[in-house]
């Protein structure tokens, strides 16, 4: 395990640069730092969902995801390293299948919102998509995506389903998009 922070104010970033896990220093505007920041924002949003007290099984599931996002952040801070195991994607897919099984099929896009936990899940989903875009910016030469990239893609799907699950648990229906010109039901 690497060194732990014993003090928070280090002043080492005052020159507009920050340290990566491998000891290198890069500008704070570097795409790698952008990706790290986006993953941190996502993890913070998950903390907000958890503080709201979402319905089961979301607390255990999202706490596990928070740990995985720290693994993913470690991977992003160590260029060339892979820290997120492929089975992490399978875990998300299994959770997606379990949660989705209890939901009615969709025939239209869902508007973000509903109960507070669901609205926060939608916000986290949007932040996850941004983190995914930032992480893809680091993918060199295309090819087979790293597990971290696939993980973020599945996680945004899971957060969408979590929002639907939270609404259903709260007795709220999904708010469906009504395209312009379509009559009200």
Explained architecture:
- This protein has 185 residues and is mainly alpha-helical.
- The chain has a single domain, classed as Cobalamin adenosyltransferase-like (Hypothetical Protein Ta1238, Chain: A), CATH 1.20.1200.
- 55% of the residues lie in helices and 3% in strands.
- The chain has 5 helices and 2 strands, in the order E-E-H-H-H-H-H.
- A two-stranded antiparallel ribbon has the order 1-2.
- Helix 1 packs antiparallel against helix 2.
- The model has no long low-confidence stretch (mean pLDDT 89).
Task: Supply the number of structural domains.
Answer: 1
- CATH class type: Mainly Alpha
* Low-confidence segments: none
Distance between the termini: 58 Å
Supply database-style keywords.
single chain, mainly alpha, Hypothetical Protein Ta1238, Chain: A, 185 residues
Question: Brief description of this entry?
Answer:
The chain has 185 residues and is mainly alpha-helical. It contains five helices and two strands. It has a single domain (21-102, 109-169), classed as Cobalamin adenosyltransferase-like (Hypothetical Protein Ta1238, Chain: A, Up-down Bundle).
């Amino acid at each position: 395990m690497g060194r732990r922070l014993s003090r928070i104010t280090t002043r080492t970033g005052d020159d507009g640069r920050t340290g990566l896990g491998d000891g290198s220093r890069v500008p704070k505007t570097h795409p790698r730092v952008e990706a790290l920041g986006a993953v941190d924002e996502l993890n913070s949003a998950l903390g907000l969902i958890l503080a709201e007290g979402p319905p089961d099984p979301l607390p255990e599931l999202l706490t596990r995801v928070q740990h995985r996002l720290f693994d993913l952040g470690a991977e992003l801070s160590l260029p060339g390293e892979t820290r997120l195991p492929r089975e992490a994607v399978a875990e998300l897919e299994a959770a997606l299948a379990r949660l989705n099984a209890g939901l009615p099929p969709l025939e239209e896009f869902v508007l973000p919102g509903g109960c507070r936990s669901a609205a926060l899940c939608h916000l986290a989903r949007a932040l996850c998509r941004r983190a995914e875009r930032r992480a893809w910016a680091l993918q060199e030469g295309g090819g087979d995506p790293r597990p971290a990239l696939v993980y973020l893609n599945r996680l945004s799907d899971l957060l969408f389903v979590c929002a639907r699950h939270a609404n259903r648990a709260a007795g709220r229906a999904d708010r469906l998009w009504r395209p312009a010109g379509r009559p009200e039901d």
